Amino acid sequence: MGELSLNLSQTRQARGLTLDDAERSTRIAKKFLIALEDHNYSIFPAPVYARGFLRSYCRYLGIDPEPQLAELPQGWASAPPLQTEPVRTTRAPRLPATERQPRQPIDLNYGWLIAGVALAAILIGGILYTRGEGNLNDLDPRTPTEGQQEDPGGDALTPASVLASTPEGTMASFAGVSLDDSLAFLKERNLSYLVIEAADPNVPAGTVTNQSPAPGARTADGMIVTLTVSAGPTAGSTIRTDCAVLASAQVRTTAEQAWFQSNCNGSTPNAPSSQPTALPNRTTCAEIAGTQYRSDIEMNFFRNNCT
User: Fold this and answer.
1) CA-CA-CA-CA torsion for 244, 247, 251, 254, nearest 10 degrees?
2) pLDDT per residue over 73-97, tens digit each?
3) Which residues contact 182 (CB under 8 A, 6 or more apart)?
4) Are strands 192-198 and 251-253 parallel, antiparallel or unpaired?
5) pLDDT by residue (tens digit) across 137-155?
6) CA spacing 20 to 30 A to 219: which of 40, 99, 155, 305?
7) Phi and psi at residue 208, to the nearest 5°
């Protein structure tokens, strides 16, 4: 056994280590550890394994590996220089133009293409038709038209039916209700009324457009309900200018009401109240144009919307 083998074996034994301990720690097979200690390198497949295992084993035992590597057989102590050769690439020779394979055109099966387009059109048409049927089914013949509300029971409510459902002691909403239905309701509830006819090209004649007091207010004895009713596109040009006549009349035009407020002031005997009922604010430019403002509300409305 040579000096190298004695150093390795003696060092291991001096440290109280077994070959099994060294094998577990270095992950080097026991047969190679024994070969290193016995200086037997024939079992190594190549010098690189002997050098690598010897270096790892020396470090495990705490020995400088360089002197140990120097005692390896001739040519084993150092690794030979790597011989590298340049990588050569070869390129396939370019064929003459006459020998090249022509590109094959893509063969489209137009029959299948047309069939696919037709099938897609049928599917899209079916989807659209199904959606259309669903929309038609949603159109209930009882759907409320503009100006109507829908009853929870499913019946369409007209303004007149809403009027009739107003609780006792509560002011109803007369907007959109005919004058006849409105007066019938007021008479049934024993409420006094005053009707002001105003020209309105946008609302059919005989339809209530405004009221005072407002809907939802509490009613009281002696209350006078003022209804503004559309007279159609034009109203009569002749006005009554007699306080007594106007005081006893329950239907007046806008001009007559304005004259009554300016000249009678509720002082005429048999007047419906000690103070004339105020005119409702006008909210159309045509009504306000060329007249005096009745209130700041009318003035601001005209300046903001008509000028």
Assistant:
1) 90
2) 776 655 554 444 454 555 555 655 5
3) 163, 174, 193, 208, 227
4) parallel
5) 454 444 444 445 555 555 5
6) 155
7) -70, 130
